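> @MW can you paste both from yesterday?
MW: sure, first one:
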Amino acid sequence: MFYLEDAKLDSLAPLIENCSCKGDVPYPGPGKCFGFYHCEIEDVSTPKADVKDCRSQLESVVRYFVNASQTEDVLILGLCTAPTLEAEGAPAAAAPEEVKYFINFSNHPSKNEKGEPDWNERQIKAAEKYGPILDISFPPVPGAASDGTIKKIARESVARIREKNPAAVMCQGEFTLSYAVIKGLLEEGVTVLAACAERNTYEQDGKRITEFEFVKFRKYR
């Protein structure tokens, strides 16, 4: 067996020379096992080695001996690391997919201070169809705020939401700012949702109690 671990070589020449029947160490011969683990090689030029369709640089060494012995009875245990594969022209590993979030832009957080769910299970599941839930507090709006102030807060809010890579945004808050934010997000192609609920009113201990039960999210068009 020929085994190489944690090696970093300038070229493949030493491997070919040392394993060749012309070198000091005899070529292992048919039916032998080649093992390579966590190895890197800087120079991918391999004279006398057939590197066509090779998946790694070290595989080209094995192919060299396979071709020389006219046999395919060789077991390859492992190949090399990602940098070596990329250097030989193999496709690079795909970048991890970017996470998109369900943005809760309101003053009704999905979790309480203890990190426990503050929304019912139905609403959480509906939101998570778009991605992980990310709460962003709806900003306070002074009653005396001018149109210019509302537009400024809306622009800042849209930019803040866009930075979080939204898959969808639930926007609920002061009406004029909500309108401006929803309009700005829709213009940028962001999905904006409203939470739709059924109102249930009943009396308990002489008190009138109103509860809202989430039904679904509805898109703004």
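MW: second:
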Amino acid sequence: MGTWLIWKMVAKNKGWRRTRNIEVLQKRHEDGTYYPDFWKWIPDNWHIYNGVVRLARESMEVEDREYWSVDALCHVLRFETSIRDRSQNEVKINNNCTSGLARLIMAREPDLEGFFKIRTPPGKEEAVKLDGSGYYDNGEQDE
């Protein structure tokens, strides 16, 4: 069964709709853990989102990875574009936005849910998850 068909089935069951409307995305996904300028950055950088999704899926299929670092994928994407474009149009990825990119990808791409290890940003102990629970409600902190 193809990835697209799996996504379509999961999306139908969960009622997910794909959108790139930033206001809708922010309302749907903002939980206090995104870098403050992430929602300003993503509208001009969907090509980076798509590139990271492509690389993540390739690494799952080819290398049989269960998880990987979004930072590593961004470095691979930078390398690929610098080689392909001979550094004329090198991809510019704000390192502050990579954690938000990982969170958004896992929220929007069901087959990549849990693929990136994420941590609560420093000073965000008061942040809450989308279900309203806190990140430290169980008394344990993320490593």
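> thanks! Residues 71 and 98 are 6 Å apart (CA to CA).
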